[in-house]
Specification:
The complex is a heterodimer of chains A (385) and B (289).
Chain A (H helix, E strand, L loop, with lengths): L3 H14 L2 H4 L9 E11 L16 E13 L3 E14 L2 E6 L5 E5 L5 E15 L3 E12 L2 E14 L4 E14 L13 E17 L2 E14 L14 E15 L4 E12 L4 E14 L2 E12 L28 E14 L2 E13 L16 E12 L1
Antiparallel strand pairs in A: 1-2, 1-18, 2-3, 3-6, 4-5, 6-7, 7-8, 8-9, 9-10, 10-11, 11-12, 12-13, 13-14, 14-15, 15-16, 16-17, 17-18
Chain B lengths: L4 E6 L3 H22 L7 H7 L7 E2 L2 H16 L25 H7 L9 E3 L2 E3 L12 H15 L4 E6 L2 E5 L8 E7 L2 E11 L2 E7 L4 E4 L2 E4 L15 E6 L2 H13 L2 H11 L3 E4 L5 E2 L6
Antiparallel strand pairs in B: 1-5, 2-4, 3-4, 5-6, 6-9, 7-8, 9-12, 10-11, 12-13, 13-14
Helix pairs in contact in B: 1-5, 5-6, 6-7
The chains are: A mainly beta (385), B alpha+beta (289).
Chain lengths: 385, 289
């Protein structure tokens, strides 16, 4: 009988903690918000050594993103995303050998490529006491590409809301109809489909630490080659597996949090990759946060990667000189400022990315001359009302 | 809520503070319009209106969880805290200062008993003439619910006061605890005691001007659901706990128990509390100053 009342305390606390207003772990966003973000992505020019003839300029992309989020009643939320991108520049067209047998790049048409892409997605989500479930549909269109996709996901909290299990699935159906197909003997119209399934588990380890692990499986089928490359032939099916882990720890004395992410990826093109991310979230004042970020990435080459196109090989045999399929390493660093004043949240981010075969964690037999270096700047504002 | 309510928020931005308070008032109004006894269109009135209805009434998760908490209160108090005891107000009119007859009370007792409620999943069957009163639960729950919402809205320091049921969000600026004055049962304008509240909730239960004295005997509005007669225990008690809902359950149950049982039970809980007994003696481990 010693602890009757203490048992009462435990029992009464337990039932009080189950009350929705107190327990509600999953809730729709509390306010409506409208966001706009502009990003400028600039690839560095190639050098004359890499490209003996023609323009050295590569891709520039300007991205405008709009997002509207609104609670619908107490249990639902509506999401609308609209994006518009303007792309211009040139990309590697084919790769040949110079007199020393070293690969050199031939860029796509001197007049360059101009394209724009527009995308709209709409989604809704229902929030219950124990989790949430929702879905979205999206459509995107550009001169030579059209994509339709649908996604669903659901989360469930258990273990006193310390653990969350999320399952998501998506399907996309894309059409490719390259420009100037007749003139350059490109494919006229092709299709590509992707299905993806992901499971993630997040666990709150302590009041200052949380951990998340996720496994995703994606299957692509259809035309997976690059229609704008002179000699590019990839398999019609691709299976991708990614395993991600994230640990976040809040340091009370420093008023900041460290987040470390590691991702392992492999696909049946033969690419394996490791990504290691470190971010520090420093609260400077209640309304200002500074986030420096550092990322290392490295991948092995695709089985059919070649840094010099072999034009004697029939297209029925797989080959590609796409630098994204070569073995390389990349380091990127960034800095974000997040300020929150009177209902306005402003985010300013700068990022620099440098890829080099020397940074590779994998053996590089055929280094690509076309690895990319880029700078990205973005400015976003969100207004809550 | 038919009582004095106050929301304090400490924020560097006045615009943010105003928006936060607007959302909190919205939530307070939502809960009030859902659970008030004083409006015919409230969900609680619909539940009471369903008494005797063979089809019962379907309740939402929030209401079902409040019933579950009420059941825990009923069990932990050995049947003293009973949300079906409100029918006794039909015999007791504290404004008229009349003592009902034993037979009047006996006539009402069969209409009391939490264990007489039956459920089929989320459908409640309330027997004819019975009624539900969430006093001692819902206002306290609303205070916690507002505090939770305030935290989600980014409030770091604030205090919710719904007619003497408090929920604190963080400490006061300069990291001082919230000093809360508990009203004197005989005169609300006077302080009975002060309690320091850090994070969490504080709730009070007591006679609070709803009693009368007849022939030298004090009749409290806190009625024993088993006999129909007023409880002759403490005059007032305030309890602090991690949640205002928990504090409220402890305060209400303590008021319904005989004085010695109540004090023993409160002491064993380890929660800070302040009480006043019928002799006007004030004490308890939560007392400061």
């Amino acid at each position: 009988m010693k602890n009757t009342a203490s048992r009462s305390l435990i029992t009464l606390s337990a039932s009080a903690l189950a009350l929705p207003g107190i327990a509600k772990a999953d809730a729709p966003p509390l306010n409506s918000s409208l966001s706009y973000k502009i990003s400028s992505y600039r690839e560095d020019d190639l050098s004359r050594e890499q490209v003996p003839f023609g323009d050295l300029g590569r891709y520039d992309i300007d991205v405008h993103q709009f997002k509207f989020i609104s609670p619908l009643g107490r249990d639902y939320a509506l999401f609308i995303d609209a994006n518009h991108e303007n792309m211009s520049g040139a990309s590697p067209w084919f790769s040949t050998a110079d007199n020393d047998g070293q690969p050199i790049i031939n860029m796509s048409g001197a007049s360059g490529i101009y394209d724009s892409r527009s995308e709209i997605a709409i989604g809704a989500r229902y929030y219950s006491l124990t989790g949430n479930i929702g879905g979205a549909i999206g459509y995107s269109e550009e001169n030579d590409y059209r994509a339709k996709y649908v996604s669903v996901s659901g989360s469930r909290n258990f273990n006193n809301d310390l653990t969350t299990l999320t399952v998501s699935a998506s399907h996309s159906d894309d059409e490719i109809f390259p420009s100037d197909a007749e003139r350059f003997n490109r494919v006229r119209k092709e299709n590509k489909r992707a299905k993806s399934l992901a499971v993630s588990l997040s666990q709150i380890l302590s009041p200052v630490a949380s951990f998340q692990t996720a496994l995703s499986l994606t299957g692509q089928s259809g035309y997976l080659s690059d229609p704008y490359k002179l000699q590019d032939s990839r398999p019609d099916n691709k299976t991708q597996v990614a395993f991600s882990n994230s640990l976040r720890y809040y340091f009370i004395d420093a008023n900041g949090a460290l987040q470390g992410d590691y991702r392992y990826y492999r696909d049946d093109f033969g690419i394996h990759s490791h990504t290691l991310d470190l971010s520090w979230f420093q609260n400077v004042t209640n309304s200002l946060k500074i986030v420096p970020m550092l990322r290392y990435y490295s991948q092995s080459p695709a089985d059919f990667y070649s840094n010099i196109d072999d034009f004697l090989k029939p297209l029925s045999e797989n080959q590609s000189s796409d630098y994204r399929l070569s073995a390389f390493g990349a380091i990127s660093g960034g800095l974000s400022f997040v300020a929150n004043f009177g209902g306005w949240i402003t985010t300013l981010t700068a990022e620099r990315y440098v890829a080099n075969e020397k940074y590779s964690a994998f053996t590089v037999d055929k280094p690509s001359p076309g690895l990319v270096q880029f700078t990205r700047l973005s400015l976003g504002v969100t207004y809550e009302f | 809520m038919g009582t004095y309510c106050e929301i304090q928020v400490f924020e560097t931005s006045r615009v943010n503070a105003k928006r936060q308070i607007r959302r909190l008032i919205e939530e307070a109004r939502r809960l009030e319009s859902k659970y008030t006894r004083y409006r015919d269109d409230s969900f609680l009135s619909q539940i009471n209106g369903s008494a005797g209805n063979q089809n019962g009434i379907r309740v939402d998760i929030e209401t079902a969880k409040l019933f579950e908490h009420a059941q825990v209160c009923y069990e932990q108090s050995d049947g003293l805290f009973d949300i079906t005891a409100g029918v006794l107000r039909r015999a007791w009119d504290f404004n008229l200062k009349q003592v009902p007859t034993e037979s009047e009370l006996q006539g009402l007792l069969p209409l009391i008993g939490f264990d007489r409620l039956t459920w089929q999943e989320d459908i409640l069957f309330l027997p004819e003439n019975m009624e539900i009163d969430f006093g001692g639960i819902v206002k306290e729950y609303a205070a916690d619910s507002l505090a939770k919402l305030a935290r989600e809205l980014g409030v770091k320091r604030g205090l919710i006061n719904l007619g003497g049921d408090f929920a604190a969000i963080g400490l006061q600026p300069e990291d001082k605890p919230w000093q809360i004055s508990v009203s004197h049962p005989d005169n609300r304008a006077k302080a009975m005691a002060h309690i320091n509240l850090h994070e969490g909730g504080l709730a009070s239960s007591g006679d609070y001007e709803r009693f009368f004295v007849l022939d030298g005997k004090r009749y409290s509005h806190l009625l024993n659901p088993k006999t129909g007669w007023p409880c002759a225990g403490l005059t007032a008690v305030s309890v602090a706990a991690n949640l205002c809902t928990v504090a409220g359950s402890f305060a209400t149950i303590a008021m319904l128990k005989p004085k010695k049982d109540a004090l023993d039970w409160l002491r064993k809980s380890g929660l800070p509390f302040v009480f006043m007994d019928d002799a006007g003696h004030i004490g308890g481990p939560g007392l400061i100053g």
